[in-house]
UniProtKB/TrEMBL annotation:
Molecular-function GO terms, alphabetical: transmembrane transporter activity
Gene3D superfamilies, per the entry: MetI-like
Example GO BP: amino acid transport
This protein's name: Branched chain amino acid ABC transporter inner membrane protein
Cellular component per GO, a single term: ATP-binding cassette (ABC) transporter complex
Keywords for the protein's UniProt record, in alphabetical order: Amino-acid transport, Cell membrane, Membrane, Transmembrane, Transmembrane helix, Transport
Location relative to the cell: Cell inner membrane; Cell membrane
Superkingdom per UniProt: Bacteria
The keyword Repeat belongs to this UniProt entry's keyword annotation: no
Organism taxonomic ancestry: Bacteria, Pseudomonadati, Pseudomonadota, Betaproteobacteria, Burkholderiales
Family per record: Belongs to the binding-protein-dependent transport system permease family. HisMQ subfamily.
């Protein structure tokens, strides 16, 4: 068995296109997951009893299902009920729905870690709830939130490879096509693995730098 990355030369543009599509899918689904996670957090903390019960049910159901099962349900079952969406839209929505409860749990843990005394001080001087959230809670919670949230986004990025099973044109789907053309799975999947590793390592390093700067700016002590 030989190992020759030169066989991929003609397919670099296709793989690069697949990688760019993967990034866009992850950015969209990550942004939706964060927005939905914030909404879930607000609903659980400020919502009515019925809303809290509904959110808890959604969270429990989502956390109990493997992502692949949820992906199959949204792609193959929903059309039977008249809801037919493009594969890329299904992929983005499924990733967002799956990761939103995890984001909500991370946000709640970060908020709970903010010293109660600082919030009480804000109330004592007459700050509004919005001002307390923006000027007291958020600056202290964000540095605590970033490490775990980054881990979730890295997980989302890696899980985006599962979208290839519903024919979403992302990096792994493109790689499968290249393997069919070149009969060089070792070289193709080695290159793909290298891309995933480099991307996640870059994201993790950039987030750590941002986390340290936020912690220094707001005087928050980090565990690492």
């Amino acid at each position: 068995m030989t190992f020759d990355l030169a066989v991929l030369t003609a397919y670099v543009p296709a793989l690069l296109h697949g990688f760019v599509d993967t990034i866009w899918l992850c950015v969209l689904s990550g942004a939706l997951a964060c927005a939905l996670g914030i909404a879930l957090t607000v609903g659980q903390r400020r919502g009515s009893r019925l809303l809290v019960v509904l959110i808890d049910g959604y969270v429990a159901l989502t956390l109990a299902l493997p992502l692949l099962v949820l992906l199959y349900v949204t792609f193959y079952v929903l059309p039977d009920f008249g809801l037919l969406l493009p594969a890329s839209v299904v992929g983005v929505l499924t990733l967002a729905i799956y990761y939103a409860p995890y984001v909500a749990q991370v946000i709640q843990a970060a908020i709970d870690a903010v010293p109660a005394g600082t919030i009480e001080a804000g109330v004592a001087i007459g700050m509004s709830p919005l001002a307390i959230g923006r000027r007291i809670v958020a600056p202290q919670a964000l540095p605590l939130l970033l490490p775990t949230l980054t881990g979730l986004m890295i997980g989302l990025f890696k899980d985006s490879a599962l979208l290839s099973v519903i024919s979403v044109h992302e990096l792994m789907f493109t790689a499968k096509g290249v393997v069919s053309d070149t009969y060089a799975p070792l070289e193709v999947y080695f290159a793909v693995a290298l891309v995933y590793w480099a991307t996640t390592a870059t994201l993790n390093h950039a987030t750590r730098q941002w986390e340290r700067r936020l912690a220094l700016a707001h005087g928050v002590a980090l565990e690492r």
